[in-house]
Amino acid sequence: MHETDKEAGLLQALRGVTTASLTTVLLKKGLRTVWMRGASALSPGQPRVAGRAFTLRFVPAREDLANPAAWSSPTSTRAAIEAMPSGVIVVTDAMGITDAGILGDILCARMKQRGVTALITDGVVRDGAGVRETGLPVWCNGLAASPAVASLSFVGWQEPVGCGGVAVFPGDMIVADGDGAVVIPAALVDEVTAEAVELETFEAWVLAEVTRGVALPGLYPASAETLARYAAYRREQGL
Amino acid sequence: MHETDKEAGLLQALRGVTTASLTTVLLKKGLRTVWMRGASALSPGQPRVAGRAFTLRFVPAREDLANPAAWSSPTSTRAAIEAMPSGVIVVTDAMGITDAGILGDILCARMKQRGVTALITDGVVRDGAGVRETGLPVWCNGLAASPAVASLSFVGWQEPVGCGGVAVFPGDMIVADGDGAVVIPAALVDEVTAEAVELETFEAWVLAEVTRGVALPGLYPASAETLARYAAYRREQGL
Amino acid sequence: MHETDKEAGLLQALRGVTTASLTTVLLKKGLRTVWMRGASALSPGQPRVAGRAFTLRFVPAREDLANPAAWSSPTSTRAAIEAMPSGVIVVTDAMGITDAGILGDILCARMKQRGVTALITDGVVRDGAGVRETGLPVWCNGLAASPAVASLSFVGWQEPVGCGGVAVFPGDMIVADGDGAVVIPAALVDEVTAEAVELETFEAWVLAEVTRGVALPGLYPASAETLARYAAYRREQGL
Amino acid sequence: MHETDKEAGLLQALRGVTTASLTTVLLKKGLRTVWMRGASALSPGQPRVAGRAFTLRFVPAREDLANPAAWSSPTSTRAAIEAMPSGVIVVTDAMGITDAGILGDILCARMKQRGVTALITDGVVRDGAGVRETGLPVWCNGLAASPAVASLSFVGWQEPVGCGGVAVFPGDMIVADGDGAVVIPAALVDEVTAEAVELETFEAWVLAEVTRGVALPGLYPASAETLARYAAYRREQGL
Amino acid sequence: MHETDKEAGLLQALRGVTTASLTTVLLKKGLRTVWMRGASALSPGQPRVAGRAFTLRFVPAREDLANPAAWSSPTSTRAAIEAMPSGVIVVTDAMGITDAGILGDILCARMKQRGVTALITDGVVRDGAGVRETGLPVWCNGLAASPAVASLSFVGWQEPVGCGGVAVFPGDMIVADGDGAVVIPAALVDEVTAEAVELETFEAWVLAEVTRGVALPGLYPASAETLARYAAYRREQGL
Amino acid sequence: MHETDKEAGLLQALRGVTTASLTTVLLKKGLRTVWMRGASALSPGQPRVAGRAFTLRFVPAREDLANPAAWSSPTSTRAAIEAMPSGVIVVTDAMGITDAGILGDILCARMKQRGVTALITDGVVRDGAGVRETGLPVWCNGLAASPAVASLSFVGWQEPVGCGGVAVFPGDMIVADGDGAVVIPAALVDEVTAEAVELETFEAWVLAEVTRGVALPGLYPASAETLARYAAYRREQGL
C-alpha cells in the first residue's frame, strides 16, 4: 500500500513535468537515448501520461506465420492484452514498420476496458477514427489500413524491446506528451522525478524573466546573481 | 445502364466500409501489398471516396525535359486532365519524390470541374491552401512549394504505375479514407466488396461487445459460441 | 532610410505572393533547389513571413563537446540569439537530425523578444506547447523532447549553411508559408519579387477562368488569345 | 543417429543448391520474405554454408546498459557464444544498425573454436582483418570500428528475431552464398530441399540450352515439348 | 550504312572518354541529373561500355500479378529480351528495390547471346556467380537471391523510365565505367561526344602537369598563359 | 622540434593500433560518436593512416553558385588544397551526398604532391581509376561520375564539420584503417594513444589464448586470475 502510494505520487509528479525537462535531467546523468523516434500523439491535445512499461514485440512478417491463423495463436496480441494490468503504458516494438497497423479499434477498445493508460509504438495503428473513439491515448507514427500480419509477426510480451531507437524494459517508467515519449530507467525514477520537478519550477521562472525582457547571458545558464534572485523568488513563493 | 447501376451500387457499398476492412479481406485472399505508403488525407475529416483508377506517371526530372516548355507538350499533365472522365480517382506515381508538387490549385480546380472524385499520390501537391479551396479531396505525402518540373518529368497517363509501393492499373478500384488509400484489383472488386460489407457488420458487433466488457478470447477471433450469438444478433436485426 | 523603405516594400510584396509562385519564377531562371525539405509550419494557419536569413549552424554531437557545459560556451545558441537583429528569419542547419530539439520555449521566447520574424530549420524544436505560446512562427520537421546537445553541437552563426537540401547564405531572402520555406538569393530579390507579383496576378485570373469552366488547353499555358483576354482584364481592373 | 544422418544429408544437399533456387521454390509455396537484406559475404569467394539458426538479439543502446560493464553481464554475447552447439549458423538481429560492430575478432575466433558454421547479421562486424583471419564465414552489412555497446544492448539468445526484414526462429534452416542469406522455415526444410535440388538440375540444363543458342519462348518457362526434351536428357544422364 | 558508320564512330569515341568527363560536359550545358544512383559495376575491372538505351520497366509486386504465372505472360521479361537488338544497353527501372533480383543467369545468358552490350539497373541481379560467367557486363546495386516476382511486377519495355533518379528514354546514349552509368540525351550525343573528347585530352595534360609539380592556381581552371602552353603542347603532339 | 618528435611518435604509435581498439578506449571515456559512417577504404588493403584533420566543408548546390564559375572562386577546393600542409588528413563534410564526387583525379594528384596523408569523406570521389593511380589513400562512400557542383557548393576549409555523423575540428587526430575512420579529440590524443597501445597488446594475447582453446568466461573480460597470467606473460616478454 505504502508502495502504491509512492507510485501514485510519482505518477502524479511526472504528469506535471514536461518530457523536455525529463530528457534534460536524464542527459545530465549521461543518458542521451531516451526519446522514442516516430511516436507522435495521434490526437492533438492528448494530455500527458505516465505509467510503467508493458512491452509488446513484433518481428517481420513471414507468410507461413503472419496470416489470419496467427490471430488464434497462444502468442497473439489478444493474449497479450488479456495479460495487461491496469495503469500500464503499452510500448510496442514494430521495428519502425509503418505500412501495417499493429492494432485497430477493437483491440484498443479492449485495452481501454482493461485500464491501460496509453499505447506507444514506433509503428502505426489502423482504424484511426475508431481508435480515437475508444479514448485510449496513442503515440504512433501515423496510420495504415493494413492489418499487422501484412508486415509483422507478433512474438511476445514483457520482453526487452527497442522502440524508436530506445531500449525499453518491462517496468521502466514511460512519460509521453506533445513532444513525444520518453523512458526513465526503472532504477532512476525517483531521483529523475525529483530533479525534473525542480527543473520545471526553475525554467518556468526563467521563462517569465525572458518574457519580461531579461537577456539570456547570466540568466540561462544562470549566474550566481541569477541563482540568488531565483532563491529569493522561491522563498517569496514558499516553494 | 445495368452496368452503371451495378457500378453505382459497388461505389456506394465501398463508401460504407473502412479501408481497414478491405485490407483484411484482401489479405485473406493472399494480397498483402494494397495500401499505398505516403498517401495521407490532406485535410482532416475528408469523407471516404471510391472510384476507378485513372493513372498518371512521372519519371525523374532531366533538365532538357523538365522545364517550363514541358507545360505545352502534348504529353503534359494538362492534356491528361482533359482526358479524365467524371468519377475517376486519379492515382499518380511520383516515385515518392516529396520536394516538388505534382499539381497545384489551378490544375486541381480543373480536375474538380471535370468531376474527378479524388487525387491520390505518393508525392506531394503545391499551393496547399488553394488546393483545399478547390474542394478536390487529396491524399498525398505533404506539400511543397516547387513546381513538378523542379524534380519530375511527366510521361503519360492510363499506364500501369507504382504508387506508394503498390501496383495500380487503370480501372482498378481505389478506396481512400482516414487510414489512407487502398487498391482492389479490378477482377476482385465484386467479391471483395461483398465480403468487406459482411466483415464491417461483424466487427461493429464485436466492438460493441468489447465496449460492454467482453474479453477477447473466444470473441475475436470468434468461437463457435460467439458466432452463434452473432447469428442470433443478425436475425434480431433482420440483417 | 531609402534602403529601409525599399526593403520594407519588398517584404510587404513578398508577404503577398505564395512560395509556389516564387519557386516558379526561380525555376524559370534556372534555380531548382530553393525549397527546404522538412521545414513545415509548426502551427496550422501561420501567416506568410518574409525576412533576411540569419543562419545558425550545428554539427553532430560529440560527447566531449555536446553537454550541459556547452550552454555557457561563447559559441552557444544563447550568444547567437543576442546577436540577432530585429526582423530576421533564423535559418538553422540541423543536418536533418530530428531526434533532438534545436531550441525550446525559453530561447524562442527570447528570439520573439528580440523581434525575430520566424525560425526555420530542417531539424525539430522541443517544448512544442511552450514554443507555440511564445508566438514565434516556426517551420520545422516536428518535435522532440531531447535537448540539442543529445545529438547536436552548435558551432556558429552567420555562416553559409545547408537547410533541407538548400544552400542559404546570411542575407538571402527567405519566404515561408503553408507550402514551406523558400530562399531567394540576395542578388535576385528585386527581380524575383517583381516577377512573382506579376505571376500571382495572372494565376489568380487563370484560376477564376478555370472555376467558371474554361478548359486548360490554350489557357494554361496561355495562348496568344488568352494573353489578349488577360491584357483586357488587366486594363479593366486598372492593373 | 538416423536423425543425424538425415540432417547431414539435408545439409549436404543444401550446400549444392543456390539461394536463388531456394527462393524460387519458397516463392512457389507463397513465401516471399525469406532473403535477408544487408547480409553480404564479408570475403569474396566464401563457399556456400547451410545450418540451423542459433539467434542473437540486440536492442538499441541505452547508456545505463550499454557500457563496458555489460561485457560481464550474465546476458552477454560471451555467455551466448559458450551456449552455441557445433554446426549452427548464428543469426544476429542488429536492427540494421551499421555504426557499431556486433562482434570482433576475439569473439569470432571463439565461435570458430566452438564449431560455429557461419555468422549472419543485418548489422556489421569490427576488426574486419582479424575476423577474416579467424576463418569464420561472415555475412554482414559492412564493417565498423566501434564496439557493440556504442549503439547496441545485447538482450538474449535463441529467441525469435528479425534479421534484414525476415523473421528467423531458432532451428530454422539457413543457407548463405554469394547472393546472400535465406531462411527455410523448419517445417518446410525437407520438401524445399528436395524441390530445390530438382530445380537446380533443370535450370542447369536450361542454361546450357540458352548457351547453345536456344531462344527463351517455350524454353523458360518450359513448354510440353521442352519438358519432353528435358525428360529425355535426364534419362540419358541417368538422373 | 553511313548512319551506321557514324554511330560506330560515336560509340568508339565514347568508349575512350570517362563518364566523369561526360558529366562535366553535360553540366556545362545545364544537365545535372544524368548519373544513375545505385548502378555500380558488378565485376571489378569491367571495361567501359557505350550503347543506345533499351528500357525495361517494373512496378511494385502485387500478389495477384507477381507470381510464377507472370513468367509466361506476353508482357514478360522473356518477351522483352527476344525484342532486344544487338548492341543496346538495357536500362532497367527497378524503382531502387534491392531485395529481389530483376534477372538471373539464364536471362543474362540469353541477353549475351542476342548481342546486348550491357545491363544497367538501380535494382539488383540474382545468381551473381552465374551472371558473371555469362560475360554480360552488369551495373547494379548488389545482389539478392529472391526472384523478381518477390517484389516486382514487369510491365513493359521501350518506355520512358527512371533509373537511379535519372530519366532515360529509349534511344538515349548510355555510357558506363568504373564511376557508374551516365545518360546522354539522344539530341545531344554528337556535340557532347565531341566536347568530351576534347576535355579528356586537356585533362590528361593537366594531370601530367600536376604530377610534375605544377600548382593548381592558373592551371585548373586554366589561365590564358596555361591555355597557350596547352595549345603549344597540342601543336607539338599534332593533336 | 621536441613537439615534432612527440607528434611523430604519436603518429607511429597510432599506425600500430586498430581503429577498433581506439573506439573501445574512447567509449570507456564516454565518447561513443567517433566513427564516421560511410567512409570506407576505396582500395582494399590500404595501410592504416594517422594524421591531424584538415577540414573541407560543402553545403548543397544552388544553381547560381554551384557551376563551373565556382572553380575559379577564391573559396574553391583548389584554393583549399594549396593551403594544406604536409601530413594532414583531409576530412570533408559532403553531408552524406553520394551522387556527385567531391574531388577527382587531378585534385587528388595535387593533394598527393603536397604531401597530404589521406582523404576522408562521407561523400564520394570521381575518376575512381585515376584517383587510385595517384596513390592518395581515400576513405569514401563509393564513386560517382558527376562533378561536385552537380550537387554541392564548397564553402570553406579549416572550420568545424560533421563527417559521417561525427563532429571533427581542425587539429583533431584522425586514424583510418579497414574498419573505417575514427576521430580522437585533440585534447585526448596522448592518453587515448597510450591506452590503445596497452589494449592492443592485451587483446593480441587474449586472441592467442582463444585460438589455443581457452573459453571466454574469465578470459574476456579478464578475471583476476587471467590478469595475473597476462602480467606473467608481459614479464616474460619484457613488455
TrEMBL record, chains A, B, C, D, E, F:
Alphabetized CDD domains for the sequence: RraA_family (cd16841)
Matches recorded under Gene3D superfamilies: Ribonuclease E inhibitor RraA/RraA-like (3.50.30.40)
Residues binding Mg(2+): 127
Sites where the protein binds substrate: 104-107, 126
Keywords from the UniProt entry: Magnesium, Metal-binding
Pfam families reported in the protein's UniProt record: RraA-like
InterPro entries, A to Z: RraA/RraA-like (IPR005493), RraA/RraA-like_sf (IPR036704)
Any one GO molecular function term: metal ion binding
Required cofactor names: Mg(2+)
Top-level taxon: Bacteria
Name of this protein: Ribonuclease activity regulator RraA
